[in-house]
């Protein structure tokens, strides 16, 4: 009988610390051996030759909305997780909203969790929600295994997931701190966005430019300053999601220096698309907070290069095409991006801006694993780590076509974009879940 289940032969093994040439053996869903100097001895039931290809820890996408149960016609665990597998993602954290019922108590958590277990091709964890009405359910959600909690400081766009006012934020943060959990925050100011939206709509301007003006960077700055203050007051660990601007990141860096336990996430679309793309591509590229100007995108890359960004999550938040129509104020806000995170980082980061593979691994796998207590089981390629990994060929390129997308709705603001670097295989717990050679999911 073969000693190992799988051996990956002759690849470049990438961790946040460096790249080395070698072989990886997998047994029982874990990495069983790594050999960098001599060829790994032993045999396996399956051997994959990955000469000249790069083996990365599978990505951990901390931010997706798969909307199941309740809005499975928008996405779903099956289609969403296939898209992730094809994009090299081996673990995701599903957001508590857009699914119905929203994940704000144990019953809703259990229902969603069982659906995920049945249908997801990759590993997953669930976020619990913090809404004004569920402070008494935070403990049970934490005991169910919620990876953390998510709250909105401005309207979420979904009626059954209410934004928190300041009093509820403070109450929730006190409880979450007591539970030693973490609060992820959608930090845009309700007051500023509501006021500007009303003013601009009254003027009858529903253009892309007007939508961008209704949600300025200042609105993020105000909300982030407030939540950082509350974090100091309550000692609650926080994670600021989908930040669009280096100015906001500077605020967070300053708070870190003062001892606030805060991390920051941005998304591939804020690193690759601009207000000009929003005007050109239309509501397919609408999201909140909105895309920013090209110079902001470059400053975001500078912040990333300086080590000021902790995590990159996709914030995949699709809807059926009929909701992605109409004007910039009424159309659904959310970008489909779960499948293309690594592609964007390779094309826009590695190739165009000289960002190392180590940095990409740190932002998409190691840091998420560390922040959410999954390290060293995940986020690294090491003996006894879970065999969650993805293998890429940097020399292959492709143009993204509709047919490539595994989403329920084959929509993406990146259609027609040329990407250098291709995911060849994705393994989850040692099992091959995606192979580009077969162009299908097992
Ligand atoms: N209801 C949503 O899915 N919202 C999401 N939508 C975006 N980002 O446009 C989000 O994370 O805020
Ligand atoms: Zn959000
Ligand atoms: Zn989101």
TrEMBL record:
Name of the protein this chain belongs to: Allantoinase
NCBIfam families associated with the record: allantoinase, pyrC_multi
MF-aspect GO terms: allantoinase activity
Top-level taxonomic group: Bacteria
Keyword presence, Hydrolase: yes
EC number: 3.5.2.5
Annotated Zn(2+) 1 binding sites: 63, 65, 150, 315
Pathway noted in the entry: Nitrogen metabolism; (S)-allantoin degradation; allantoate from (S)-allantoin: step 1/1
Domain Amidohydrolase-related: residue ranges: 54-433
Post-translational modification: Carboxylation allows a single lysine to coordinate two zinc ions.
Species assigned in the record: Metabacillus rhizolycopersici
Record text on cofactor binding: Binds 2 Zn(2+) ions per subunit.
Enzymatic reactions: (S)-allantoin + H2O = allantoate + H(+)
Pfam family, one: Amidohydro_1
Family statement drawn from the similarity comment of this UniProt entry: Belongs to the metallo-dependent hydrolases superfamily. Allantoinase family.
Subunit record text: Homotetramer.
